[in-house]
Amino acid sequence: MITFVWVLCTVAGAGLAVGAAIWLGRSARSKEGSFNPQALTFAGGVVLSSFVLVSGFLIVGAWQLQSVVRSHAHEEARVLAKTYARAGELAPADRDAVRTKITEYTRTVIDVEWPALGEHRASPAAWRQLDAVQSTLNAVPADRRAEAYDATVASLDEVYVKRYARLADLDSVSPPVLFAAMIAAGLLVLIYPPLVGMTANPRNVAVLGFAGAIVGFGILLVWQLRDPFTAPLNVGPSAFQAALERYAQLK
């Protein structure tokens, strides 16, 4: 389905460009080429630059946003693994209980919360699982609380901080107005040549068709990148899956 959408968008851009070239290229002015060349060059440069500027800004911004989201996920997973390791120094009964809750939280993030992130919402179940880790630590008797206990509590507090940072990314999406501006600029890029006099001969139509395909592909690429939580170019839960593998190594 995703491949079909990519192809459809690219073909649609090419079809629009070819149709505009054939339709607008039949006018007498198009055939005579009576416009001032310097003016045409300047106007064309402005139109092309607007599309390049907006699309470049959106691609760079979306890529940086994905990097931030991925970094926050890896930071939380790293601290989870550290908490799991700290819990290994607790008394056996407390160690097993805390580690079990940490594992359950990690699996909930992978299986339940990550699909919910695609809908821009956090999972209440994940919150409950993390709070269960805290409750398990709070239930440790005072006579079994030592340096290892304090280190585990401090590390768990850091998990909460990292989780809040990761969930704050849910509101980070490229502004829709910029995406609309890129579409408008792309349309102008394709319509401008036939509008100002490009003759609708086979060579020119083919060249404009290639340009339309590139514009259509670029618009779809930006659309897929604008939301770091939506497939197919979304950030996945690989950091938390790696944390589960680390837990197995620490047993």
Describe this structure in words.
The protein is mainly alpha-helical. The chain folds into two domains: 2-61 and 174-225, no CATH class; 70-168 and 234-250, de novo design (two linked rop proteins), CATH 1.20.1440. It contains nine helices and no strands. Helix 3 (37-87) packs antiparallel against helix 4 (92-117), helix 4 runs antiparallel to helix 5 (124-138) and helix 5 (124-138) runs antiparallel to helix 6 (147-168). The longest helix has 51 residues, at 37-87. It is rod-shaped, with a radius of gyration of 27 Å. This is DUF4239 domain-containing protein. The chain crosses the membrane at residues 43-63, 173-193, 205-223.
Layout of helices and strands:
Blueprint: H1 2-24, H2 28-32, H3 37-87, H4 92-117, H5 124-138, H6 147-168, H7 176-195, H8 202-225, H9 238-250
Query: Which class of secondary structure composition applies to the elements?
Result: mainly alpha
Radius of gyration: 27 Å
User: How many extended strands?
Assistant: 0
**Mean pLDDT figure:** 82
CATH topology of the largest domain: de novo design (two linked rop proteins)
Shape category: rod-shaped
